[in-house]
Design brief:
- The chain contains six helices and twelve strands.
- It folds into two domains: about 150 residues, Major capsid protein gp5 fold (2-Layer Sandwich); about 120 residues, capsid protein of prophage fold.
- Strands 4-12-8-5-7-6 form a six-stranded mixed beta sheet, sandwiched between helices. Strands 3, 9, 10 and 11 form a four-stranded antiparallel beta sheet that branches. Strands 1-2 form a two-stranded antiparallel ribbon.
- A hairpin with a 6-residue loop joins strand 10 and strand 11.
- It starts with 7 loop residues before the first helix and ends with a strand.
- It is α+β, with helices and mostly antiparallel strands and about 280 residues long.
- Helix 1 packs across helix 3.
- The radius of gyration is 23 Å and the shape is flat.
Length: about 280
């Protein structure tokens, strides 16, 4: 099999398709300012307008002079770069086993997505304002003395509302054990019928307390099994990336074919008041 038979454009589409099916935290962010991202070191510029003063109007009285708009600019740096690079020996006759290549590309796409998702999770955790970090829940479960998982979601929603965060498009990402506690709560399992029975996509496990609830194994966790559950709106942070077209090549010191590709990306919390969090630990 010659290098040309890899048809990079086909594999590139395959990789992008798998990537879109895997990420959770990244899917919570907006991509409004992605622009033309080409390589590590690129900068995405975001313009914004400050608050406009609202004044009371008095009939037959001159109003204030026109207020000068306070414009500002923030930047998203494309700081992250991850790659895959795998080869198949000629003895394996990989050209006769297309499923092997497909499986390898799927594994590569999962790896890229998982790495980016972990990075974004840490970025969001660090971006939550101190005032939006709720008091830790040290024992979340179904016992009489345990912290209530559903009420934690309500409290996170309340904190976002206090900050005037939009009520549409709210999300929260929880670890599997927290989802398990919710499944034992009739307020969650009986909600919305069809909405909670939708086919799982991008980690979504239903809706409750005003949130689209997503499940992930990448929820930030401390040394004492204390998980930082983050909630927010998509406008709170933005993400920009590009998956470089895969390159097929012949390894110089091997008989076989190889494929490599690069994923460059960056993200920034642009509205920290649109995020809220709580550190939660599962009941023993």
């Amino acid at each position: 099999m010659t290098t040309e038979n890899f048809i990079p454009q086909v594999w590139s589409a395959k990789l992008l398709e798998n990537w879109n099916d895997k990420h959770v935290y990244v899917a919570c962010l907006n991509r409004d300012y992605e622009g033309e991202v080409r390589d590590v070191g690129d900068t995405v510029k975001i313009n914004s307008i400050g608050r406009i003063t609202i004044a009371a109007y008095t009939k037959n009285t001159n109003h204030n002079a026109a207020e000068e708009l306070d414009d500002s600019q923030t930047f998203i740096q494309i700081t992250q770069a991850d790659y895959y690079n795998f080869g198949i020996d000629s003895i394996d006759k990989a050209q006769q086993k297309p499923k092997l290549m497909s499986a390898a590309m799927e594994e590569a796409s999962w790896g890229l997505a998982d790495t980016a998702d972990n990075w974004v999770a840490d970025l969001l955790e660090a971006g939550v304002q101190t005032a939006n970090q709720l008091t830790a829940a040290t024992s979340v479960g179904t016992g009489a003395a345990d912290d209530d998982a559903y009420e934690i979601l309500v409290d996170l929603g309340t904190k976002l509302t206090e900050n005037n965060a939009p009520k549409t498009g709210r999300w929260v990402v929880v670890p599997p054990w927290f989802h398990g506690v919710l499944l034992k709560d009739p307020r969650f399992v009986s909600f919305g019928t069809g909405a909670n029975l939708d086919v799982l996509k991008n980690g979504s496990i239903g809706r409750a307390a005003g949130f689209e609830i997503k499940e992930s194994n990448n929820v930030p966790v401390g040394s004492s099994s204390d998980y930082t559950i983050i909630a927010g709106v998509s406008a709170a942070a933005t993400f920009a990336d590009q998956i470089k077209e895969p390159q097929a090549y012949k390894p110089e010191l091997r008989f076989g074919d190889a494929m490599k590709g690069l994923h460059v990306y960056g993200a920034k919390v642009t509205r920290p008041y649109g995020l809220a969090s709580i550190v939660a630990t599962a009941a023993a």
